[in-house]
Amino acid sequence: MTSAPPPDPATHNVQKTRTGLSRIWHAGAYSVQGLRAGWDETAFRQEVLASLVLLPLAFWLGSNWVEIALLAGSVWLVMVVELLNTGIEAAIDRIGPEWHPLSKRAKDMGSAAVLMALLLCAAIWGTAVFQKAFQS
Questions:
Q1: Tens-binned pLDDT, residue by residue, of the chain (136 aa)
Q2: I need a surface site. Which of 65, 91, 118, 121 has the fewest CB within 10 A?
Q3: Best CA proximity match to 128, nearest among 64, 62, 59, 47
């Protein structure tokens, strides 16, 4: 029985062959690269800068760990969805610059996901501010 030839390095994903700490280390490095790539996006930068104010404010506004987690988590969710939307847009743009209805649909759905995350965040924060302002 003969073994299969080794995979072509040009087409093989080396990360798939890593295990243990090496895989975790490299995955972490790829995540940092993703955050750096996200920083190049204006919307992500704006959301990160807003989080620098909102995350500490969550500890003042929330009266228990659940409220703090909801406030902070909604801010983090917006940034996560923004990164996913940016990834979708990059993948679609890699396919080609020409307009296609499926490409538009994918980008529109990613944008809608960001909008929904922002609306959820605004609703959570608005409710918390209202409760804090009018609490008797």
A1: 556 666 565 667 777 788 888 889 989 999 999 999 999 999 999 999 999 999 999 999 999 999 999 999 999 999 999 999 999 999 999 998 899 999 999 999 999 999 999 999 999 999 999 999 998 5
A2: 65
A3: 62
Which residue in 54, 56, 108, 109 sits closest to 77, CA to CA? 54
Residue 82 among the catalytic residues? yes
Are 103 and 136 in contact by the 8 Å Cβ rule? The answer is: no
CA 41 to chain centre: 12
What values do phi and psi take at 2, rounded to 5?
Answer: -100, 150
What distance in Å separates the CA atoms of residue 37 and residue 123, rounded to the nearest whole number? 29
The catalytic residue among 67, 82, 89, 98 is: 82
Instruction: Tell whether pTM > 0.90.
Output: no
